[in-house]
Amino acid sequence: MNQVRRTYLDHAATTPVRPEVFTAMQPMFSEMYGNPSSFYKTGQEAHHILDEARASIAACIGARPTEIFFTSGGSEADNWAIKGTASRFNSKGRHLITTAIEHHAVLHTMDALQKQGYEITILPVDSYGLVDPEAVRAALRPDTILVSIIMANNEIGTIQPIAEIGKICREAKVLFHTDAVQAAGALAIDVNELNVDLMSFSGHKFYGPKGVGFLYIRTGVRIDNLIDGGSQERNRRAGTENMPAIVGMAKAFELAVAELETNACQLTGMRDALIETILERIPNTRLNGHPTRRLPNNANFSFEFIEGESILLMLDHFGFECSSGSACTSGSLDPSHVLLAIGLPHEIAHGSLRVTFGKSNTVEDVPRLVDALVGIVDRLRQMSPLYEPDKQRIQCSSEE
């Protein structure tokens, strides 16, 4: 019996650890096992390595090493940025602003604050998933203490005008946070050009290990601690640092930034070829997200008359590993909140597919995936009582 060839196309969910990253991590489990808070030689060696990792990461985003604080991942960084700001400035105001297409690490954190009496303004987005910077300006109030807007959406790939929004917030003297988890390693990031005060990252999105991330906190910005205990991270985030993971993340980020332009070119080529071919060969299909202002590796489609889960199961049978949206909500039967926010009706939002390319993919994967999808979509539609073969195709270009 022939074994099915596996093709991983869900790099927005997670990425494998690069061999160079794994190599860099290995000594931290054995020879260099010291606690960086210890004063003896082994501990001080670990502390030096920790400082080097922090400096390397800071250089990747135009920050100072003292502005980098290690966390357990992007979700903790989001929680810390939002809850830490809310706690610190609750005497100044209890109003926060975000958008309808944020990752749940932001939206659910906002929900938790709302239950504590904070007021949350959730801004709408247009049909491409873009927020209007002027809508941010209009939503600002004297009691606004934080604006949190994702840099690049994890589901539909749309890239927000972060620098423009950050400038508006800075003029209003309101702190600005962005979740850059999906953008890191895919887009050039300079915290000064983007006018951000707080920025969240996660190592496993750019070929680093899972369970580690960091929060950028601009010099002069004071937010309350999320985790109290020891004096690690300059008394701002307690807990012995996860040295193997931190070293691995720093190495992965350094490599991703060095190879960013080359990788973006390759990924964009595969992405655009996939989008063009699918829209040409499969009628009643919509591209979700902005047609050009999107992450290099992201393509998100809605196929009318069928369920996304059925597509995923059949693709998996043929060896293709994709997603219907965020990995964090894969257990939910509800349609994506992001797709609903861009105006899709429930029945079309249910038929979504997210393909995110990565280093393991080649141009040959595109026609193979399309061929499989053409057959799968046709088969599923033939079983659907809602399918009307002669129905006019959904408009899916930038001319919408």
Walk me through what this model shows.
With 400 residues, the chain is α/β, with parallel strands linked by helices. Helices cover 38% and strands 13% of the residues. It contains 13 helices and 12 strands. The protein has a 7-stranded mixed sheet, with helices on both faces. A 3-stranded antiparallel sheet has the order 9-10-12. Helix 2 (41-60) runs parallel beside helix 8 (243-258). The radius of gyration is 22 Å and the shape is globular.
Task: Give the topology.
Elements: E1 7-8, H1 19-25, H2 41-60, E2 68-71, H3 74-88, E3 95-99, H4 104-115, E4 119-123, H5 133-139, E5 144-148, H6 162-171, E6 175-179, E7 198-202, E8 213-217, H7 232-235, H8 243-258, H9 260-281, E9 285-288, E10 298-303, H10 308-317, E11 320-321, H11 337-341, H12 346-349, E12 352-356, H13 365-382
Parallel strand pairs: 1-11, 3-4, 3-5, 5-6, 6-7
Antiparallel strand pairs: 2-8, 7-8, 9-10, 10-12
Helix pairs in contact: 1-8, 2-8, 3-4, 5-6, 9-13, 10-13
